[in-house]
Amino acid sequence: MSVSAFDVRKQLAFYGAYHSNATNILIHVVFVPVIIWTSKVLIADIPVPSFVPAVHYTFSDYLAFDLNWSAIFAAIYLAYYYILEPTAAALYTPQWVLSTLTAAAFTRADNHVQIACVVNGLSWIAQFVGHGVAEGRAPALLDNLLGAVVLAPFFVHLEILFTLGFRPEMHKQLKNDVGVELARIKKIEGDKKRAAQRKVT
After folding, report:
1. What is the pLDDT of residue 2?
2. CB–CB of 137/131 below 8 Å?
3. What does the pLDDT look like over 93-130, one tens digit per residue?
4. Closest by alpha carbon to 15, among 126, 196, 157?
5. Residues β-bridged to residue 56
6. Domain ranges across the chain
7. For the purposes of burial, counting CB atoms within 10 Å of the CB of 154, is it exposed (0-12), middle (13-18) or buried (19 or more)?
8. Which residues contact residue 96 at a Cβ distance below 8 angstroms, ignoring those fewer than 6 apart?
9. Beta carbons within 8 Å of 38's beta carbon, 6+ residues apart
């Protein structure tokens, strides 16, 4: 990520500029959590280094904890969100923890990899349809893969909070920031098209 990785306004302005269409935002609100959950299921099977202690605890058939890559990445993501916006991150923590615990429990199922792969793939297709049809432009991950993948869950969470009235002044500022960023991106894209046309002629 860029030097502004810990500036919540700059990070969300970047991501928001690729998600200004209401339909595309709704698609993300539905499918980003699904992508995150299925990704937690899939990376849970990746072996961790030998120095990582083996911790496995089952609360119920639907809630479990394993100290694996899924839990490690979940902790890193959440720590980053606390740096960006502590209050919003605190409100997000219960959902994030529940997602991690249910994903760990689901890995106990024999066919968890196949199911997670199918659901994850369909969710990504929905995302690309949202960008191609509703937004009319390429997704953010094509310009900043790491930033887009890390920011997506928090962006969706904040969109829901803003709809419920969370920090209206911050929401207003971000809308302005997104407008400026969107204009900058469109200018760059326009300059590239004009340069390509000049080469052809």
Report:
1. 47
2. yes
3. 999 999 999 999 999 999 999 999 999 999 999 999 98
4. 157
5. 66
6. 8-200
7. buried
8. 74, 77, 78, 153
9. 103, 116, 117, 119, 120, 123
